[in-house]
User: Fold this.
Amino acid sequence: MTAHNPASPPFRNPVIRWVDYRLPVFTFMRDHLGDYQTPKNLSYMWNFGSLAGIALVVMILTGIFLAMHYQPNVNGAFASVERIMRDVNYGWLIRYLHMNGASMFFLVVYLHTFRGLYYGSYKAPREVLWMLGVLILFTMMPTAFLGYVLVWGQQSFWAATVITSMVTAVPFVGEPIVEWLWGGFAVDNPTLNRFFALHYLMPFVIVGIIAIHLWALHMHRSNNPTGVEPKGPEDTIAFHPYFTVKDLLGVAAFLIVYLGFVFFAPNFFTEPDNYIPADPLVTPHQIVPEWYLLPFYTVLRAIPHKLTGVIAMVAAIAILFLMPWLDRSPVKSARFRPLYRMFFWIFLLDCLILGYLGAQTAEEPYVTAGQIATFYYFAHFLIIVPAVSRFEKTKPVPESISVDVAAREGRRPRRGVGTKKKEEVA
Amino acid sequence: MVNVNSATLAGAEPSDSREREKTGGEGTRRDFLLLAATAVGAVGAGLAAWPFISSMRPAADTLAEATLEVDLSPIETGQAITVVWRKKPVFIRHRTADEIQKAESQNVAELRDPQPDSERVKKPEWLVMIGICTHLGCIPLGQQPNDPTGNYGGWFCPCHGSHYDESGRIRQGPAPRNLAIPQYEFIDDTTIRLG
Ligand code: HEM
Ligand code: FES
Assistant:
């Protein structure tokens, strides 16, 4: 365990030693995957980060294999996707993995984000880590949208038209910008070509941001359910084997859910309309984005002014950047913040309502409900969180992680002793 | 995946060696679990990789195009045609009695790739071969009436100078093998099916 004993023993394998002296990859892996000290009380809510990473790797892998068969051309795109489904060996599997993988990716990233909101993981000294996470979320959305367009079905085409047309809300230069985006006077072949190029690129941009996200994470390490920073060796355990095993168990559970959809309900998340080839002259009866974009779609529709609607939609995500400064409470974890905890759950409910409303037609009572839910969404950040953090009476925070763990297990804390023993018992 | 790798890396846990001492140097339960988990993980990764590898093989629609029927009746004696089968040129030559006689009388033992003419044809007057030089893949000349036919009266590859005889056997130049014979059969007297 390096953190306790900085002079960790040299590697036994001479080849590893030779390489490591010249390029310390093995030391790096040991310090960041092996002996890396982690709060010992992390719950399963801390699994979603590694799951998001795995989802991203799966997306890149399946995506690259899809790209080997996909044709980014208006005359061939739809047919090439159908060819993947019918003729390419296991093409159906690879496409369904990619399609449902996008939903799983968003699912785990949303859970990861709400986890952060609940336990105050955005607070000092993790503000930059948090903001990088929001940036990842911001980058995932256009990535998924671009991919959805590639299929070149009816939903693809009209989603592309609607989303790109948002740019026309910009005064004066809106029109020229949207023509620049399209590379023409409507969504057409040039649009599809550049969307493919960008859909291939963006996941690697996300990989880059994740690398920095992890760098920031390893600077001050994980938050934990108490929100109290580790105070000594009795509060932490090594990442390996404790969290490698815990993360792997999470992976197994994740795969059961993910593959359950892939094999038993592969079209659960999609619109049947997208199996109709794109027709630039017929708009489907209803354009619905994928579920993970629905809450933001409601925000867009709630505001009856074009430019303001678009700004509000972007702001709905961007406001997360400000969370570290909107919440002034010195206590991190909602476990010790009864009022914040209550509002957290109401906020989560509000997000679900926004999502539900996004899938409804644009008529009453859904429009008014969408406006109320949108108002509440912003009020949570701009009014409730700052007010609560000022006036809330928090519960006493435990002295340290191990004190809390011991109290919950109904025994006296062990101090100073390596945590090793205890974990072997557990 | 990362996790599995690090599992092998950081196997040297202090408690592990202590446990090992207790069991008198034998493997511990942890060793067993680690090995079993790694083995199952490796098998799983292999199985998961298979669909991806398989997806790069020729797809069903590609395979569906893989047979071709050719009507030989319009080809006069001494004429040759080239058809495309599986994206490859196939040479079909209606040989003259003179060509057949030369091809059959050749002493097989002195050839680089010994093969009697009878092994290369189904009917002596019809020579059907894949028109790809066995050296590095160029298409030999000799199909058109005024093409060079090389020193052995068959085909000549312009890329690096391989000479093939009336049976498409390699006689001179860098190519190692005779021109390949595709899989085909006569479905009636004047029609063949490739593939
Ligand atoms: C952040 C990771 C990624 C996300 C969230 C994502 C998302 C999506 C989505 C939602 C679709 C539409 C699925 C459908 O309805 O069929 C799609 C399609 C596609 N994606 Fe990705 N993708 C990612 C990474 C990649 C990568 C790295 C490639 C590599 C080139 C790729 C290539 C493709 C192709 C070729 C299609 C069209 C074929 C199809 O729809 O099955 N994707 N993507
Ligand atoms: S490719 Fe024909 S001689 Fe080299």
About this structure: The pocket of protoporphyrin IX containing FE (ligand 1) is lined by residues A 56, 59-60, 63-64, 66-67, 70, 81, 95, 98-99, 102, 105, 140, 143-144, 147-148, 150-151, 199-200, 203, 206, 270 (CB under 6 Å). Chain A has two domains: 32-281, 290-397. The first strand of chain A starts at residue 37 and ends at 39. Chain A touches chain B at residues 9, 12, 26, 29-30, 33-35, 57, 61, 65, 68-69, 83, 86-91, 93-94, 238, 240-241, 244, 247-248, 420, 424 (CB under 8 Å).
